[in-house]
Design brief:
The protein is 67% helix and 8% strand. By secondary structure, it is mainly α. α1 runs antiparallel to α2 (23-48) and α3 (53-64) packs across α6 (118-139). It folds into two domains: 1-37; 49-163, Orthogonal Bundle (Arc Repressor Mutant, subunit A). The protein is built from seven helices and three strands; from the N terminus they run αααβααββαα. It has a three-stranded antiparallel sheet. It starts with a helix and ends with a helix.
């Protein structure tokens, strides 16, 4: 087992406050540090495709919605779990880049639909392939079976935190 900086922090707390169990600090500290490092690596790949994380998220949400790759702006905000005002600014940037287009919502004249353009479809298909390859590379140091166990454990943790 490798030793890391978090081990030093946990050991220091164990020494200084033997009345406390700092084990949770080790878990949360590593999740936080991993999140920062993973974000940096994900953003690097998104940048190679002219995107950032929020832009990738919008395009990926539209792409996985299936043909015609169209969602209402409010459904897009709900699916990306972001405030509607933030979604609006993301959409505006993607429209300016020619990756999505805004259309009037046929069911609600006040609403707006967002659809991938052919250019947006091309960009997201390349970007998502690179993204999945990058994620596989990032997790490749884990032993066989650990990825599924980690996903299951994190799902349980997130369920408890969300609930």
């Amino acid at each position: 087992m490798e030793h890391d900086h978090v081990d030093d922090i946990v050991a220091a707390w164990t020494r200084e406050r033997p009345d406390l169990d700092p084990t949770p600090m080790g878990v949360i500290g590593r999740i936080t540090r991993a999140s920062r490092l993973l974000d940096r690596e994900l953003e690097r790949v998104f940048g190679e495709h002219g995107l950032d994380g929020p832009g990738f998220d919008v395009l990926a949400t539209l792409r996985r919605s299936g043909r015609p790759y169209l969602l209402s702006a409010s459904a897009l905000a709900d699916a990306t779990m972001v405030a509607r005002s933030s979604t609006t600014s993301r959409i505006e940037r993607l429209v300016a880049d020619g990756l999505v287009e805004r259309l009037p919502n046929e069911r609600d004249g006040r609403g707006v639909d967002v659809r991938l353009t052919p250019k947006g479809l091309e960009v997201i298909d390349r970007a998502v392939a690179a993204h999945v390859a990058n994620e596989s590379r990032l997790l490749s140091s884990l032993p066989v079976g650990a990825t599924k166990r980690l996903a299951d454990d994190l799902r349980r943790l997130l369920g408890a935190l969300d609930g």
